[in-house]
Specification:
The complex is a heterodimer of chains A (about 120) and B (about 140).
Chain A lengths: L1 E3 L5 E6 L2 H13 L4 H15 L5 H63 L1
Antiparallel strand pairs in A: 1-2
Chain B lengths: L7 E5 H6 L3 H10 L15 H47 L2 H15 L7 H16 L6
Helix pairs in contact in B: 3-5, 4-5
Chain lengths: ~120, ~140
C-alpha cells in the first residue's frame, strides 16, 4: 500500500511479521518502554536512509552495527569479569567462614563431652 | 486498558524498492534498534576501514571471553567446595540439639566453677543453627 505525506513523498505502509512483532514486544517489556519507540526508530532510519538510497550505504550501516554490537558485548563481558571476581572473593570468604564454623562447633562439642566425663 | 498496538512502519517507496528483502533489513534494525540514534549518516566508514577495527575488537572480545571463562571455572570449583562444606556443616548441625542439651546440663551442674563461657557457646550454637539449619540470611 502506498501512502503520501504532506511533502508529496510517497511511502509504503509495511506490516511487520508476527515474529518481528513478538521481538518488539519482548524488547519493550524487558526494557519497560513503549514499543512505538522502536517502530519510530525504524521509521526514522528509513527516512534518513532515503537521502542516501544505495545498497553500499546499507553495507556501511551493517558494518557499523556489527562493530557497535561487538563493542557492547566486550563492555558487557568486562563487567561480567568484575562481577565474577566479586563472587569469587565472596565465595572464598565463605569457605573460610564455613571452615571456622565447623572447627568451632566441633571444639565446643568436645569441650562439652569432656565435661560429661567429669 | 490496552489499546490495539499498530505494528506497521512507513518506508519511503524508493527505499522500499531498493531492498530485495525489506523484512531482513527490519530484522536487523530491530536487533540493533538501540544503535540507530548513534548512526552518523555523514561519516559512516567503508567496509575496509572498519575491518581492521572489527578484527581488533573481535580479538579483544575473544581474549576477555577466555579470561571470563577461566574465572567462571574458578568460581565453579569454589562454589562446589562451598556447597560441600555447607552440607557438612548442616549435617553436623543436626547434633546441635544434643549440644544445646549438654550445655544447659553443664551449666546447671557446674555453673561458673568451670572455665566455659556459656553465653559465648550459646551464641555460637545459635549462629550455627541460623545459618545451616534455619538458613537465615545474615548481613
Amino acid at each position: 500500500m502506498v501512502t503520501t505525506m504532506s511533502n508529496k513523498k510517497k511511502y509504503v505502509k509495511h506490516d511487520l511479521t508476527y515474529k518481528q512483532k513478538q521481538k518488539i514486544m519482548n524488547i519493550s517489556q524487558k526494557r519497560d518502554m513503549d514499543s512505538s519507540v522502536i517502530l519510530e526508530q525504524i521509521e526514522s532510519f528509513f527516512e534518513k536512509f532515503s537521502e542516501h538510497d544505495d545498497l553500499d550505504f546499507w553495507k556501511k550501516i551493517r558494518f557499523f552495527f556489527n562493530l557497535r554490537m561487538l563493542e557492547e558485548k566486550t563492555k558487557q563481558k568486562t563487567e561480567d569479569i568484575v562481577e565474577t571476581k566479586k563472587k569469587i572473593k565472596i565465595q572464598k570468604d565463605l569457605l573460610i567462614e564455613y571452615e571456622d564454623d565447623y572447627l568451632a562447633i566441633v571444639e565446643l562439642g568436645r569441650a562439652l563431652d569432656s565435661l560429661n566425663k567429669l | 486498558m490496552s489499546k490495539k498496538q499498530k505494528f506497521t512502519v512507513l518506508i519511503p517507496d524508493e527505499t522500499y524498492d531498493l531492498f530485495t528483502d525489506v523484512d531482513e533489513v527490519i530484522d536487523r534494525l530491530i536487533e540493533h534498534y538501540s544503535f540507530i540514534p548513534e548512526i552518523n549518516y555523514k561519516e559512516l566508514k567503508e567496509g575496509n576501514e572498519v575491518e581492521k577495527e572489527l578484527d581488533e575488537i573481535t580479538e579483544e572480545f575473544g581474549h576477555i571471553s577466555q579470561v571470563h571463562g577461566k574465572l567462571m571455572q574458578e568460581f565453579g570449583v569454589l562454589n562446589f567446595s562451598g556447597n560441600e562444606l555447607y552440607t557438612r556443616n548442616t549435617v553436623t548441625g543436626i547434633k546441635l540439639g544434643l549440644l544445646m542439651g549438654k550445655l544447659e546440663r553443664a551449666k546447671s551442674i557446674w555453673g561458673p566453677q568451670l572455665s566455659l563461657n556459656y553465653d559465648e557457646a550459646k551464641v555460637l550454637i545459635q549462629h550455627f543453627a541460623d545459618r545451616y539449619l534455619l538458613k537465615k540470611e545474615e548481613d
